[in-house]
Write a structure and sequence with these properties.
The chain is mainly alpha-helical and about 160 residues long. It folds into two domains: about 80 residues, no CATH class; about 80 residues. About 80% of the residues lie in helices and about 0% in strands. Keywords: Membrane, Transmembrane, Transmembrane helix. It comes from Flavobacterium fryxellicola. This is Acyltransferase 3 domain-containing protein.
C-alpha cells in the first residue's frame, strides 16, 4: 500500500488540495457542521496515509491553527503583523526559491560547516525570504498585471 502512495502521490497531495477547498468553504460558512466533520475526516485520513510522529504533528498543528484562524481569529493576532503578512503574500515565490535553490544549496554546503550547519540553513532561508519578497513585489505583481491586461481586457 505504501508503494502505491509513493508512486501515485496525487492521493497524498490531492487530499491537501481538498482540505484547502473545504477550509475555504468553512471560511465563508462557519456554521456548517458537516464541513467541519468532513475536514476532520480528511485530516485523519491524511494522518493514516503518511503516519509517523512527524507527520502526525504536521497534521495536528496546522489543523488547529487553521480552525483557530477561521473561528477565533483574535487568538492568533500574529497573522496581523506586517512582516508575517509579507511572507504570506510572497509565500509561493519563497516556496519555489527554497525548493529549487535553498535545499540543494544547503545540501551542497552543509559539510563545510560541520556542527554549525544549522547556521547555514538559517542564513540561506533568511536570504531566500528576502529575495522571495523582492521577486513577488518587483516581478510577480507587475507580470501578473500585464497578463491580466493582455488576457482579461475589460469591455464597456
Amino acid at each position: 500500500m505504501t508503494i502505491f502512495f509513493k508512486i501515485f502521490t496525487f492521493f497524498e497531495y490531492g487530499i491537501w488540495f481538498l482540505i484547502g477547498m473545504v477550509l475555504e468553504q468553512l471560511y465563508f460558512d462557519k456554521t456548517n457542521k458537516r464541513l467541519v466533520l468532513f475536514l476532520l475526516a480528511l485530516f485523519i485520513f491524511q494522518a493514516i496515509l503518511i503516519f509517523n510522529s512527524y507527520a502526525l504533528s504536521f497534521i495536528i498543528i496546522p489543523c488547529t491553527l487553521l480552525l483557530l484562524f477561521i473561528y477565533r481569529h483574535t487568538l492568533i493576532n500574529l497573522l496581523d503583523n506586517k512582516s508575517v503578512s509579507k511572507v504570506g503574500i510572497a509565500s509561493y515565490s519563497i516556496y519555489l526559491l527554497h525548493q529549487n535553490i535553498g535545499v540543494p544549496t544547503i545540501n551542497k554546503l552543509s559539510h563545510l560547516f560541520n556542527d554549525l550547519n544549522w547556521m547555514l540553513g538559517i542564513l540561506i532561508l533568511s536570504l531566500l525570504y528576502l529575495f522571495g519578497i523582492y521577486i513577488y513585489k518587483y516581478l510577480e505583481v507587475p507580470f501578473g498585471k500585464k497578463i491580466k491586461a493582455l488576457f482579461f481586457i475589460k469591455t464597456h
